[in-house]
Amino acid sequence: MEEKNCVGIWMDHKKAIFITKENGEFTIGHKVEAESYHGHKGEHIANNAKRSGDRKYHKAMANELMRYDEIYLFGPGTSQEELQNFLHEDQHFKYKKITLGTAGHITDPQMVAQVREFFQ
Predict the structure, then answer these.
(1) What per-residue confidence (pLDDT) applies to 118?
(2) Are 94 and 120 in contact, with CB atoms under 8 Å apart?
(3) Residues β-bridged to residue 15
(4) Edge-to-edge order in the sheet of strand 70-74
(5) Nearest to 99 by CA among 117, 79, 114, 118
(6) Per-residue pLDDT at 1
(7) 39 or 67: which leads in pLDDT
(8) Alpha-carbon distance 91 to 50, whole Å?
(9) Torsion sign, CA atoms 88, 77, 12, 45
(10) Which domains does the chain have, with CATH numbers?
């Protein structure tokens, strides 16, 4: 039976850390950083900038996730749910298995261990 291509992502609203399987072992892969708005032009503009930044952040992750069959999203807060909702709107992710988990701000080895445990 063919092994599924899987990835774990620890994420919050500022960054996403990809944990991928290489040579049979899970390791920290690349990171995706969210853009942040630092202007002082008013609440309406700041809200629009945040929405636009979130969309770019989710698109950047979606582009990276295309090659994976199983996706495990975990981290603090609601950022994983927001990404999952974004991915469900994209037909490319219709048949991919996406699972949510939780974790606070943890160390890199703890992230790797959580992903390894989830996929085993």
Answers:
(1) 96
(2) no
(3) 33
(4) 25-33, 15-22, 6-11, 70-74, 97-100
(5) 118
(6) 46
(7) 67
(8) 25
(9) positive
(10) 6-119 (3.30.420.60)
Indicate the average pLDDT of the chain.
87
Q: What is the DSSP string of 38-102?
A: ---S-HHHHHHHHHHHHHHHHHHHHHHHTT-SEEEEE-STTHHHHHHHHHHTSGGGTTSEEEE--
Report the alpha-carbon distance of residue 43 to residue 34 in Å, rounded: 19
- How far is Cα 15 from Cα 35, in angstroms, rounded to an integer? 9
Report d(CA 28, CA 66) in Å as an integer. 18
Amino acid at 58: H
Question: pLDDT tens digits for 82-109?
Answer: 999 999 999 999 999 999 999 989 999 9
User: pLDDT exceeding 70 applies to what percent of the chain?
Assistant: 82
What local confidence, expressed as pLDDT, does residue 51 receive?
Answer: 67
User: The tokens of 110 are what?
Assistant: 């703890």
Q: What are residue 79's phi and psi, to 5 degrees?
A: -60, -35
